[in-house]
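thread: overnight batch results

M.L. [08:02]
morning all. the overnight job finished for the chain we discussed friday. pasting input first so we're all looking at the same thing
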Amino acid sequence: MLPGVYSAKKKDGTTYYRSSITFSGKHISLGSYPDEQSASSAYQLAGKLLYDNTISLDMFSSGTSVLPFKKWVILLNFRDNGMYIKTPIYLKERFFHYYFAEHDFLTFDIEDLFYYSTRSISRRGGHLFVADYGMQINILSRYGIKNYAVAGRDFRFVNGDSRDFRYENIEIINHYHGVFRKERKGTVYYETKIHWNGDFLVGRYDKEIEAAIAYNKAASILITKGYEKEYPVNYIEELSDAQYHEIYKNISVSPRLKNLTPRL
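M.L. [08:03]
and the structure it wrote out:
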């Protein structure tokens, strides 16, 4: 058997070949191949990537490489940074890139390394997810961005790069459901809307927290009167129960909601 190659059998008895290499005391699997020569080629290429410091990610060619780009990232990161990571992460000084393909990556703060080194990111419908405790979690929630949030309206990437998830680059504009930050002639105010016969204007408020509580009050009125049954709740963690209830009692909402005829 060629170096770095060993044979195995599938359940149907078919023989296939696996390849692996050891570097800095770490045994690294390189994948499975239909023939011994392909597995050997993977072993030889992995050796070059790990021992030849002149090889970089920019030299990858999908048409000629027996190893996938993900494996290039893993091996070159191990070579250059001394840390073996199973996900396609390449470390920089204070941040890292998570690669999907050549020239296609996300940027994260180094504080997020443990999280993304143990979870693979997948794309679906333009959204980014990780599998976490058996659930598909949108990674935006990790940065305080709600599932219903719209880029440019509820949050923005400060430097304009929507692939840069460093904390300093993410600005939350609207923190609460149904609340929208507005500005008129240099004055900031908050507008509350709720879904009832379209986007219904509950009111306009000086403070974001007041606007969020107004949404909760509007939702409670609609539910009590037998209209929509499922509205998300805005949680105001910085207020005590007494403070919350005082604002809730005194906050004004559109008279149209109060005057609604209850649904039977």
